[in-house]
């Protein structure tokens, strides 16, 4: 009997550890398959841009099929295409710390116009070495990476204002200014938080740090822009009001309430325009891709404009929010702000009209670090009671409903934003983090689906040893009740994503680069322009590729110790005709060169002999013939 009870308990604990919700029998309706089936040759209705977490990359999925369409290299080297290996792409991964070829990508935002996704660019964050990247959705290429100074753990990033005026980024780890060291136990006095406002050029999309706000030492976790009535405001969740700097899991979880920081960025912008910004030394890299030169440049900058805490009393206000808030999400109307306290047993919803009134009436509840704290009760719209355990993130549909992820109780809970009434709940498999409704954080949600991005995979797929794929799930939300349709694996750890109607993007997609527009300094626009030049020990090979030969294909006169640069131009002018370029023993990577593009592989031969090179992408019936030889002679 005892044995039985013990066994029962043990298995119960095991089940809890696996975060398996009760009754997690996989009840999938028989019509689920047809709802995600996209017939061969047909397109998906939505693009999904899904963070690749610690892979440092961004992935593109089709929904509802859950088919992986592409992995887009951003912060990590990618030997598949030569990104981060070719001479042209190396500068993209430059930072003030030198070459940093990886990062931890959490959040994704599609550019917006009037609070709606416009499908021009995607912005993503590098959480580790603070960076923000911009990808162009004509080419699906990373075209800009901007490092953020005086920041550490670029987590609360990159969230956009309604017209993509700014990409906003808050530091997760408060630190002193870059390069300054203090005893860590002086945290309370010497550490601080930083919020960056990165201006975005309306036409070209180019980013520049417009200004930074120096704010109290808090852990800035997530943020979202106001919209409609809350236009001009930004909301940041913060934790660690305790200002702990050791054993955070205990010491940063003591207070009943932490804060959401409301920032009047319009006011900050006015102050900057009025010349109130202070110049502060800073060292950060700004890397840009030139789509005609097919090359990146990296520039190190050395100054930012800041507004200091004494200037921000009428810019930043603190809203008390129960227990270590994670997500802070603004509903499509712009009136309601949902705070998700990781350790809270309820979900507070704040009303912007009340926040505004409280500020006007100076209805404050004391100060925190010299900033006014608003009264919880006076800005609260209401609380969703007993919603679930471990709320993290909330998205919205087009019918006034919210969908909140609950990490601990492994579920999505649907509730009505106005009435705060809980309408439905479904289990997730397992321990959901972020979730995404198409357009679900904009003024214009498209509804239809919610995708759960989960932290734990366990038994969802065939086992692959200790390391399992990451996992996500697609639910139908078109009816009153949510319905599980599909499991699909993801790359890296999926955090946030954006899901956008394919119709907004697909017809703008570039098919190939026009060879006559190629301004690469080492382009050969035809076979008659191929050549080999030498300056000292530097050899430049101007090479072309076209089905099914490389020109030149016999290279002599190379000596041990030379630095050989293969500038390889793909002469094809047709969609989907890349060529590859690979050299035996090269310690870089292969190249994958798109039609009309030039890319460069650097090779330093170490020994004499004959070295073959070839096209590594099966491009025609005579692909195997697409090869050549280099003769390497003694130095
Ligand atoms: S975080 Cu991943 S579950 Cu880095 Cu946006 Cu919330
Ligand atoms: Cu070109 Cu194979």
UniProtKB/TrEMBL annotation:
Q: Which UniProt keywords apply?
A: Copper, Metal-binding, Oxidoreductase, Signal
Q: What is its EC number?
A: 1.7.2.4
The principal location of this protein is other
Among Pfam families, the record links this protein to: nos_propeller
Give compartment(s).
Cell envelope
Signal peptide range: 1-24
Where along the sequence do coiled-coil regions lie? none
Source domain of life: Bacteria
GO-annotated molecular function: nitrous-oxide reductase activity
Which InterPro entries did the record assign?
Answer: Cupredoxin (IPR008972), N2O_reductase_N (IPR011045), Nitrous_oxide_Rdtase_Sec-dep (IPR026468), Nos_propeller (IPR041114), NosZ/Cyto_c_oxidase_sub2 (IPR051403), WD40/YVTN_repeat-like_dom_sf (IPR015943)
> What's the protein here called?
Sec-dependent nitrous-oxide reductase
Instruction: State the organism named in the record.
Output: Pseudopedobacter beijingensis
Gene name tied to this protein: nosZ
């Amino acid at each position: 009997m005892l044995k039985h009870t013990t066994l029962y308990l043990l298995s119960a604990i095991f089940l809890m550890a696996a975060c398996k919700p009760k009754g997690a029998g996989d009840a999938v309706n028989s019509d689920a398959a047809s709802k995600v089936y996209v017939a061969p040759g047909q397109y998906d209705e939505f693009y999904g841009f899904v963070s690749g977490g610690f892979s440092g990359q961004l992935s593109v999925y089709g929904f509802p099929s859950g088919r992986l369409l592409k992995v887009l290299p951003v912060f990590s080297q990618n030997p598949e295409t030569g990104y981060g290996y070719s001479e042209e792409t190396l500068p993209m991964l430059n930072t003030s710390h030198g070459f940093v070829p990886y990062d931890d990508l959490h959040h994704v935002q599609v550019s917006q116009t009037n609070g709606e996704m416009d499908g021009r660019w995607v912005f993503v964050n590098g959480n580790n070495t603070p960076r923000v990247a911009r990808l162009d959705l004509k080419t699906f290429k990373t075209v800009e990476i901007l490092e953020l100074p005086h920041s550490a753990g670029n987590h609360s990033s990159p969230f956009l204002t309604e017209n993509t005026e700014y990409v906003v980024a808050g530091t997760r780890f408060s630190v002193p200014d870059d390069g300054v060291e203090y005893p860590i136990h002086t945290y309370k006095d010497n550490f601080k938080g930083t919020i960056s406002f990165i201006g975005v050029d309306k036409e070209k999309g180019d980013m520049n740090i417009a200004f930074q706000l120096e704010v109290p030492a808090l852990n800035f976790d997530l943020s979202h822009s106001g919209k409609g009535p809350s236009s001009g405001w930004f909301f940041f969740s913060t934790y660690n009001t305790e200002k702990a700097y050791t054993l955070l899991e205990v010491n940063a979880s003591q207070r009943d309430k932490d804060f959401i920081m409301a920032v009047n960025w319009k006011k900050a912008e006015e102050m900057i325009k009025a010349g109130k910004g202070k110049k502060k030394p800073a060292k950060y890299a700004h890397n840009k891709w030139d789509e005609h030169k097919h090359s990146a440049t990296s520039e190190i900058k050395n100054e930012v404009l800041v507004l200091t805490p004494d200037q921000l009393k009428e810019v930043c206000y603190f809203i008390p929010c129960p227990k270590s808030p994670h997500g802070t999400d603004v509903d499509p109307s712009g009136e309601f702000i949902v705070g998700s306290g990781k350790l809270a047993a309820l979900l507070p919803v704040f009303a912007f009209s009340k926040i505004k009134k409280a500020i006007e009436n100076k209805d404050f509840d004391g100060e925190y670090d010299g900033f006014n704290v608003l009264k919880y009760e006076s800005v609260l719209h209401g609380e969703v009671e007993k919603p679930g355990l471990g709320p993290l993130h909330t998205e919205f549909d087009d019918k006034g409903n919210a969908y909140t992820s609950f990490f601990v109780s492994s579920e999505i809970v649907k509730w009505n934003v106005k009435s705060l009434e809980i309408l439905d709940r479904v289990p997730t498999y397992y321990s959901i983090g972020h979730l995404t409704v198409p357009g679900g954080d904009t003024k214009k949600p498209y509804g239809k689906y919610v995708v759960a991005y989960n932290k734990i995979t366990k038994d969802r797929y065939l086992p692959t040893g200790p390391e399992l794929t990451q996992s996500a799930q697609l639910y139908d939300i078109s009816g009153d009740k949510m319905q599980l349709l599909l499991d699909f694996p993801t790359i890296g750890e999926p955090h946030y994503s954006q899901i956008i109607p394919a119709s907004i993007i697909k017809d703008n997609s570039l098919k190939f680069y026009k060879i006559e527009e190629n301004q690469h300094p080492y382009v050969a626009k035809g076979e008659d322009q191929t050549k080999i030049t030498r300056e000292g020990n530097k050899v430049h090979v101007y090479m072309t590729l076209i089905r099914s030969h490389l020109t030149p294909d016999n290279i002599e006169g190379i000596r041990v110790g030379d630095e050989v640069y293969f500038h390889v131009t793909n002469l094809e002018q047709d969609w989907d005709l890349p060529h590859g370029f690979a050299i035996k023993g090269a310690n870089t990577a292969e190249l994958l060169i798109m039609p009309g593009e030039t890319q460069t592989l650097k090779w330093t031969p170490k020994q004499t002999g004959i070295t073959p090179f070839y096209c590594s992408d099966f491009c025609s019936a005579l692909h195997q013939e697409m090869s050549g030889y280099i003769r390497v002679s003694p130095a």
